[in-house]
Amino acid sequence: MAFEKAFWFIKRGYLLQMSYKFDFFLRMFFMLFNILTYYFIAKMMGDAAAKYLEPYGGDYFSFVLIGMAFSGYLMISLRSFSESVRDEQMMGTMEAMLVTPTNTSSIIALSSLWSFIFASIRVLLYLVIGIFLGVNMTHANVFGALVILILTIICFSSIGILSASFIMVFKRGDPINMLLMSSSELFGGVLFPIEVFPDWLQSISHILPITYAVNGMRHALLQGYTLTSLAPDILTLLLFTIILLPLSLFIFEKSVLKVKAEGGLVQY
Amino acid sequence: MIRNSGQKDVLTTLEGVNLRVKEGEVLGLLGPNGAGKSTLIKILCTLILPTEGKAYVNGYDVVKEGQKTRSSIGFITTDERSFYWRLSGRENLQFFATLHNLSPSQVRSKVEELLDVVHLKNRADEPFLNYSAGMKQRMAIARGLLNDPSVLFMDEPTRSLDPGAAKSLRDFIKEHIVAERGKTVFISTHQLDEAEQLCDTIAILDDGRIKAQGSPDELKSGLEANSTLCDVFSFYTGKSFDEDGVSHVPFAIPRRKKRGYGLGMKRKGY
Lengths: 268, 270
Hints:
Chain A is mainly alpha-helical. Chain A is built from 12 helices and no strands.
């Protein structure tokens, strides 16, 4: 039954997305612009940043491509749960779903499925375009990359569930989303290596899950690190997941009970 | 019994609500806007948790056995936004049927059956946004029947319909849902004629309290001959009743005064 539900949520997301075809193709098209921008920045930089990029293979375009592609998962994880709550509230469909035997947590989780699939399509396109533009992934450790990807999605989703809990209770002004998004972009090593920072600023990078996600992904895809070599990143992501997942589910359940008692689950 | 005692920041408070609905009965919850009708229905549908008291639907505790409660009920809302407008009618029903834990083959057969019942089979593949208000409401009824519920909750089902469409919907509820399928129906309304035509029992709800409960004839029995439900409402609440859902303290509307004694009520023996 879970499979059928997942299928219908994905189908619903796909049909709704495809009912706005122009938006879909426009987003895909401008993604190409984004990639090309960094391609030419990398060309201009040449070997100027080689000192900082050496641990990642030495090429800025490959570095930034992986960073941009996989930071998309953070954005989707942080936004999709809270946005699905808000979208269903605004569309007026939340009440009709909540009156079915499917529980609230499943509804919120399944509502986000299409966003993750859409994000994965984007990541795949990033990588394919990157390969065409000269990114070398011939030594990629695909299995290692998949392990990191799964941990990344679960870990980021836990933060997204926390964010959705805030949205349910306070409706607007989610501090988790704002804090994580802006700090991850600056300190997470997405667009430039964290080694650029002075030591005291690097300590901020080390408490952000995205740092380990993009770091591990670069090592797996660009340099073909073995699972043993990837272990520090994998174990840190696992630790984040073990702490954040039960915490976020607990807070989410409490939030659902709170808004149900207040009658605010379907309000926005 | 549901007791939802008052607390700060609660918009609607229900208190001392004590209702028992028999199987196969149509109970009408009659009251003005803000009386607590929707809140009561949402509590019974597990959408809102009561702060105090107990409520059972089909023998299930709505707080402790929410999932079992939801499996046994259908909820028909007037909000036409509660569908995905860019999906077709059929896709909408298939989606919600899956949420009711129906298998793919059950989804197919149930959706086809219900599209037939609500006479929308030939328009089922059109986007929901193309439907008229009456068609949207029939879709809401089809969705409410997807899990073949024993109890159907309807929150002002004819609110957005013109008189013709409203009558046709009332006939449909009476013939297909009550007579043919034998469902127990819990319907909230502020349409007096609707309550009189459809309901075996009427509960008058005002300011979150049940003021009276009985069949339309029982409720009128203590009043003058030819009394209407409007008079019944006035008698039990001390307010006059407009069908736009607004209740008034009757002296504020002089024309209401001539309809009865004192607070706009009629009573045998005066």
